[in-house]
Amino acid sequence: MGWREGAKKRAALEAVKHVREGFVVGLGSGTTVAYAIQEIGERIRREGLRVFGVPTSHQALLLAVSCGIPLTTLDEWPKLDLTIDGADQVDKGLNLIKGMGGALMREKIVASAAKQFVVVADETKLVEKLGANHPVPVEVLPFALSTVVARVEELGGKAVLREGKRKVGPVVTDNGNFILDAEFGSVDALDKLDVAVKLIPGVLETGLFVGMADVVYLGKQDGVVKLERK
Ligand code: 5RP
């Protein structure tokens, strides 16, 4: 395992220490949180831990099933005890850009439903300012694609339709929508940008997670750094 995979796993193992008996846990998507999902499965086997998971994507669902984690839904549990998820960029204020895996809409819903939102990433994800050299993913209703692209340009951004890999045409999300990757450059007023983009008709969600994370574990080569909301 390379240093980065080791760092991701170390961060994930710290996050899973937040999981307690009887918890209903939001399960994020991506390669880092996958280590956390596997560890929850291990704890179920080792300790007889009783928990339920709410997956944020088909990826998380299939992995959770293969790890023996019983699943439930937001309809049964509208309030979750904890959500664990990854991130693409993290700033020191614990704001995030998420959605390079295309699961941002369910991820934001599940994070906002949780009493505690714990984020796991390797240290390369920590940045001074969100958005520098990184797009903000935006989930868009296919019908509204071109009008949203134009409106993002009016806001000073440049939106590119995310194309599939090993599939021709656009990426289609688990919700049947498209993803725009919108470059805004480094962002100062995160909450204002988030609101402005969300107000565009046809935008379903943005990958800006402002003021949502309670704890971030950043895996390093030789340990884990914990950032906590004050
Ligand atoms: C998916 C996400 C992921 O959590 C994010 O892309 C981080 O993924 P990884 O841990 O594989 O780097 O937001 O929509």
Bound molecules: ribulose-5-phosphate
Major sheet: arrangement of strands = 2-1-3-6-12-13
- Principal-axes geometry comes out as globular
Quote the distance from N terminus to C terminus: 34 Å
Which quaternary structure do these chains form?
Answer: single chain
Question: What is the number of E strands?
Answer: 13
Per CATH, which architecture of the largest domain?
Answer: 3-Layer(aba) Sandwich
How many DSSP helices? Answer: 6
Assign the CATH class of the largest domain: Alpha Beta
Report the biggest beta sheet as strand number plus sense, adding barrel if it closes: 6 strands, mixed
User: Which range does the strand content fall in?
Assistant: 25-35%
Radius of gyration: 17 Å
Topology, element by element:
Elements: H1 3-16, E1 24-27, H2 31-47, E2 52-55, H3 58-66, E3 80-85, E4 89-90, E5 96-97, H4 104-112, E6 114-122, E7 136-140, H5 145-154, E8 158-161, E9 178-183, H6 190-198, E10 203-206, E11 208-209, E12 215-220, E13 223-228
Parallel strand pairs: 1-2, 1-3, 3-6, 6-12
Antiparallel strand pairs: 4-5, 5-11, 7-9, 7-10, 8-9, 12-13
Helix pairs in contact: 1-2
Task: Quickly list its features.
single chain; 230 residues; alpha/beta; Rossmann fold; Alpha-Beta Plaits; 2 domains; 6 helices; 13 strands; 30% helix; 26% strand; binds ribulose-5-phosphate
